């Protein structure tokens, strides 16, 4: 029986994951040195040494099944843009999206435990880290399933931005799929936050009104017209963040709502946008900015 304190010690000495440490100790009958060797042989200890590095680059990948009924979008991070162009890394990212769809997964934990080329995804990731020499992490994924309608994706900039869109419709044909691609591209380009104005939370509107009021006062506007000005500016802002109110990027003369109405008439069935998601690789991750001069000086002092 391997006790928790031994697992903790091995983890501190190698940086490997808790479950990997436990497995190594079980395999080596609790022998610490043999367990370290076991982890090194598996590439897990080598990978762990890189775990502290910030992985803010990477790729967004998508996969849609043949029926356009289930789709997934996945973000996998690495440290440098150079590695993001590595074919092994690209294949791994795209495979993760396919696994999510094929196995209908709903959590990162399930994905980590899933089979990939005869090993767990977590083990395959560690092997890839050891092979390429950079820290990597499967950051997030989303999966959409459409009973009535279709799921469509769009990838921009070679995986810098990816989107997933679910359209509801009783008729699914090539016209609907092409529309879905256009909407997915719209989401990538214009980064809407909500589908329609009715989806915008009251708290968001209240906060924005407060900000706009302060802006108007700071601009020295007449208090008598401030409220009217706030409403005008808020209405303009909502048009920018609500997908249906945005001008269609491929035709600046019509809104997305008008595009949906036109396509609904064309196929003879109502079309609506059920949901969408947009991933931009590395968004929200604080990148570390190393000072090269300070790094060189630090190394000189340590000699």
Automatic annotation (TrEMBL):
Record-annotated Translation elongation factor EFTs/EF1B dimerisation domain positions: 71-283
Q: Does the keyword Manganese apply?
A: no
**Which superkingdom is the protein from?**
Bacteria
Name the SUPFAM superfamilies on file.
Answer: Elongation factor Ts (EF-Ts), dimerisation domain, UBA-like
Q: Which organism is it from?
A: Lutispora saccharofermentans
Its chief place of residence is cytoplasm
Belongs to which family?
A: Belongs to the EF-Ts family.
- Note the HAMAP family from the entry: EF_Ts
| Compartments where located | Cytoplasm
| Xref: Gene3D superfamilies | 1.10.286.20, DNA helicase RuvA subunit, C-terminal domain, Elongation factor Ts, dimerisation domain
- Its name, as the record gives it, is Elongation factor Ts
Q: Which UniProt keywords apply?
A: Cytoplasm, Elongation factor, Protein biosynthesis
State the function annotated in the UniProt record: Associates with the EF-Tu.GDP complex and induces the exchange of GDP to GTP. It remains bound to the aminoacyl-tRNA.EF-Tu.GTP complex up to the GTP hydrolysis stage on the ribosome.
Transmembrane residues, as ranges? none
Where do the record's region annotations for Involved in Mg(2+) ion dislocation from EF-Tu lie?
80-83
Entries under Pfam families matching the protein: EF_TS
State the Gene Ontology terms under molecular function. translation elongation factor activity
Show the PROSITE patterns listed in the entry: EF_TS_1 (PS01126), EF_TS_2 (PS01127)
